[in-house]
Amino acid sequence: MTTEDIYQLYLQHRVISTDTRKIAADSLFFALKGDKFDANTFAEQAIAAGAAYAIIDNPNYQLGEKYILVDDVLTALQDLARYHRRQLTIPVIGLTGTNGKTTTKELINSVLSQKFKTLATQGNLNNHIGVPLTILSINSTHEIAVIEMGANHQKEIALLSSISQPSHGLITNIGKAHLEGFGGVEGIKIGKGELYDFLKADGGIAFVNGDDKVLMGMQQARSLSKLVLYGTSNPDNAVTGKLTENSPLLSIEWTNKSSGEAYAVETQLTGAYNLDNILAAICIGVYFELEAGEINQGVSGYQPQNNRSQIKQTATNTLICDYYNANPSSMQVAIENIGKLQANRKVLILGDMFELGDESADEHAGIIKKALDTPVDERIFIGKEFVKQESGIRGQQSGVRFYTTAEEAIEALKETPIRNSTILIKGSRGMALERLVDLF
Q1: What is the pTM of this model?
Q2: Concatenated DSSP letters for 146-193?
């Protein structure tokens, strides 16, 4: 069966299911393979649960006309999404980068939704399966889509761009993450730059931080001509902004170059590093001709709920919960930020960073040095990679503790509780540092 044939079925059954535990009635079930399962074996169960058709790639499970046999289910899903995208005429904003993707995506969505019916990537559905599913959820009521694209290897953004076919694009930044998969920082620039490559070839518009030398160099190397700049000081920026408060929630002032008007907005975000993410959303709002009041409403109304730059007040402490993920770049700016905050007592709780390959030891040592150089009252490092560096700094400074596991840290913190402090909790997702929150 061709992609066009499957698309005709999709037009009659617009819901896509990939999990038999969550089968939607009258949906199309795609029998995807995972590392530990083959969903072909669940095709019959999916039909029994109410799916209209099951798309499979193993003829042994083709039990009737409701079972659509294809060469490869994942490829069929991606091709279907690509075909659907070609039928759409709405703007599609593609978004990638090392840090800040999800926060920026949510800010853009919050701003644009003040005027348009928008659709944005849900949760972390930003990979080779999530992007097609997001594209296939776009319907005739939507006026703009915001598609987040994640990657840990080269060629992944190229694939996701070929599926989502963004008319507009944004790279938040280039930093040190997934170094092992990308092959170093230069590999990251190549991999993330695949979005610029697509925009160049397809005549799309790039929103670029005009004050980011790396991003500006990347766009200049490709001779991108359709540019909209934003940032803090470049005179060519369409939108320029600055922080006016960081205590710990951010307030900013921004200026629309075309009108010369300046506006102030209070946010529910913490972290000075989020200024660029906020300005990106404002710039896109200006580009799509939202009123300043609508833009400010979108910015001020966004409240993070995903443990990214999220403030939690407890009875005795202020927590900066930023433990959804971590890499050397995001760690550096998060530590810098707490160093600048006005607070009576400040504590760093940092967990290991993953997927750094041969650079892991040097990068963890660098983060320890950054933490030691930052004016805080206590520093707690958790994880095997941090512990490997302990002997090199033993005795250098008081108020420094190392624990191999989160469990060890929890037991120690129960014995010596932290009170009346502003606490940054940050580490890679696999460290599961959310387990510490109840202690504070």
Answers
A1: 0.90
A2: EEE---SSTTHHHHHHHHH--SEEEE----SSSHHHHTSHHHHHHHHT
